[in-house]
Amino acid sequence: MRKIALVGNPNSGKSSLFNHLTGLNQKIGNFPGVTVDKKTGYTNLPNGEKVEIIDLPGTYSIYPNSTDEKIVFDILANKSNKLYPDAVVVIVDASNFKRNLLLFTQIHDLNIPTILVLNMMDIVEKTGLSIDQAKLSNELGVPVVPMKARKGKGIDLLKQTLTDIKVDEYHTIFDATAHASEAIEEVKEIFTIKEDYLAYQLLQQFNINTSLAENEKNILQQIADKHNFSRDDLRRKETLERYSSINHFINGSVKETFTVLPKKVTEKLDRVFTHKIWGYAIFLSILFLIFQAIFAWATVPMDLIDLTFSKISAYLAGALPDSALTRLLTEGIIPGIGGVVIFIPQIAILFAFISILEETGYMSRVVFLMDKIMRKVGLNGKSVVPLISGVACAIPAIMATRTIENWKERIITIFVTPFMSCSARLPVYTILIALVIPDKLVFGVINMQGIVLMGLYLLGFFMAIGSAGIMKLLLKTKERSFLVMELPTYKSPRWKNVGLTMVEKSKTFVFEAGKIILAISIILWVLASYGPGDHIENAQVEVAELVKDQRLTPEEFDNKVQAYKLEKSYAGIFGKAIEPVITPLGYDWKIGIALITSFAAREVFVSTMATIYSIGDDVEEGTIKNRMRSEINQETGGPRYNLPTGVSLLLFYVFAMQCMSTLAVVYRETKGWKWPAIQLTYMTIIAYLSALIAYNVLS
Amino acid sequence: MNLRSVVDLAPGESAIISGFMDDTLSLKLLEMGCLPGQPIKFNFAAPLGDPICVSVSGYDLSLRLDEAITISVQ
Asked: Is A516 within 8 Å of A604 (Cβ atoms)?
């Protein structure tokens, strides 16, 4: 099957084009496991041929500034790469033609069959520009396809062009041999390359070229030294020559200049969005809106999901013969799956917001507004995007730090991002807040539980900022930090892209987290159902012996038996073993079990609660929340989940690093166990101390 | 005439790029369309004075002050 790579500048409409070509037929490279998070999909050409579409990260140049951008170089400048495409579609924003074409000219010179897509032709038409496509195509020597990707116009023509594309004779826009012919000839001979520009690229970027062996790099270094191949000087000349070629193409085929493009709307909006008061006020309001939306809108579908799964369990428990397998299904697996599915509404809403902010171009303004503040604590304006994404899930957020060029700023961002309250914490927050914070309105309109929820998010945020400030003082680097960033024009969001992001993120989350949660649910059920010795089988007799002096109703007696069984199970022993450590925080051994299992993933707290409390329980009795509410602290006789314990638990979950997937991703992104180990230790200590203080102050 | 840089421009003022004071940074700036001989316009600064927004090659670019100061203009 032919492989087609999509390449383009950020904000060129590449993702719209990808979505139009592949529809829902997309595959996202799994995290964790693969280092490149690539998006692929399939499309059918008019002649019935099926081709694979690979979406490469947006970049301005073949010379990468970040690990994300480097993927484009890795794949396109290396013919032995498994993803090396049969053709490249370079999509450019035609209303911002000049800078966009730079990348095109670089890709073109690599000698891969290339198609140029001129996107945003609607804007071009509106602004009175005119582009002579035939002439441009003739000058560049490649097919040119005009497109309005937002409206889906031009897709058919692109597909037809992909069908007909053929390999042209190799010619380059930038003549590298004019500057370093001997060096290039030598590389071509030694590495058996026929393209001048590929040889030139080997000389330019062999340091970061992962396909080369150490001795090959040495050879290239020697060739470069021998012929005085001055990389930076040549790269500067290359860029200038490319721009002068671009000017030449433009003069022939484009009327009007770009400097007069009316961008009145963007100008006016920027005056508000980057205003010294309104700018920040609007940003805070948007954040507030997001949290209120998650808490208020998501509760309806979540309650529905909660109810549905407890009904399914109850139905199956009644319909199937009572056996260990049935109980595994109704008490372990189904509540476990329910505990995953219940996140979908919140994740979908969160990613809808994040995606809208990115689609509209507002996210760049957030970076612009926050850069100076973020730099004070050792971060970068671009750290804002990972920090906000961290509200959904730390895993994609940590991967999003790849856009930060500076190593120190990137490490600090990675280090502090897990302090941001991710959606896996949300179910824990939700259930605990519902248990210990009254459902009242403040000032008649604002939900008090919503305020506490926002407070927890802010707490995580401030801990992230504070920790970043400390790390800024501890880490040393000589590397410089840049913020040369495009501020795209404002656009209305493309709802199809927003929808697809919601689907994609929810799907990835459910499958990634789901595997862990399901496995843990099963392990937990086993641990909670079996124990050493024969206490569990003889529970009825042993409890009867213990309570023979008490007058218990049959129901009370049953509850005693269930509690006794759990206490004598492996899970109970496990929880009791850590009880001395967690008693000062106000937790009992049941919470201890949940804390241990949470180290696999935080959201397991809820499914652990479901498993622990529904063991031997009548499932029809209701939801986890009600079960937890009725849990009694055996020592005080009051509710187990009272204010001090609830707050202590909330704080623990805000700060603790309880996510193995995150640790794995930090390991991969930082290439070692040093940072994950420091992160785990640091966050656990903070979590323990703050929970300890809160419990003792409140009780 | 004294050497001026982009940070010396008033909001709304344009000038022609004459060169770069920083070799490493110039590689990136050139690729982003800051070309000698081409106009650059200072649009506005962020609320805290840094970074700033400039127009170059027909689009808006955000630069920190210490980056903008390396672009000389005439």
From this structure: yes
Q: A484 and B67: CB-CB below 8 Å?
A: yes
The answer to whether residue A237 scores a pLDDT higher than 90 is yes
- As beta bridge partners, residue B58 has none
User: Amino acid letter at A416?
Assistant: V
The minimum CA-CA distance between A675 and chain B, rounded to whole Å, is 29
Cβ contact B10:A238 at 8 Å: no
Domain of residue B44, CATH code: 2.30.30.90
Q: Across the interface, do A486 and B62 touch by the CB < 8 Å criterion?
A: yes
> What confidence score (pLDDT) does residue A612 get?
67
Cα(A93)–Cα(A281) distance, integer angstroms: 32
Cβ contact, residue pair B50, A372, below 8 Å: yes
Closest by CA to A484, choosing from B15, B49, B71, B72, is B71
Residue A33's φ and ψ, nearest 5 degrees, are 125, -55
d(CA A273, CA A527): 54
Most B CBs within 10 Å, among A487, A489, A490, A491, to test the B interface: A487
Q: pLDDT category, A616, cuts 50, 70, 90? A: very low
- SS3 assignment, position A530: coil
ipTM of the complex: 0.94
Asked whether the predicted pLDDT for residue A620 surpasses 60, the reply is no
CB-based contact, B57 to chain A, within 8 Å:
yes
Chain A residues in contact with B12 (beta carbon < 8 A): none
pLDDT tens figures, A309-334: 888 988 988 888 888 888 888 877 88
Backbone angles phi, psi at A243, to 5 degrees: -65, -35
pTM over cut 0.90: no
Please, what are the domains in chain A?
Answer: 3-164 (3.40.50.300), 177-255 (no CATH), 516-698 (no CATH)
| Residue A197 pLDDT grade (very low, low, confident, very high; cuts 50, 70, 90) | very high
Name the residue in chain B with its Cα closest to that of A270: B44
Note down the domain range covering B55.
4-73
Least Cα separation, residue A484 to chain B (angstroms) = 5
**Closest partner CB to B59 (pick from A99, A280, A373):** A99
How many residue contacts between A and B have a Cβ separation below 8 Å? 115
Q: Is B39 on the interface with A (CB under 8 A)?
A: yes
Q: Is A96 within 8 Å of B27 when comparing Cβ atoms? A: no
In chain B, the number of structural domains is 1
Q: What is the pLDDT of residue B27?
A: 92
Q: Is-contact B32 B20, C-beta < 8 A?
A: no
For strands A3-8 and A87-93, give the pairing: parallel
Q: Is B37 on the interface with A (CB under 8 A)?
A: no
Looking at A418-427, A438-447, A465-474, which range is the least confident one?
A438-447
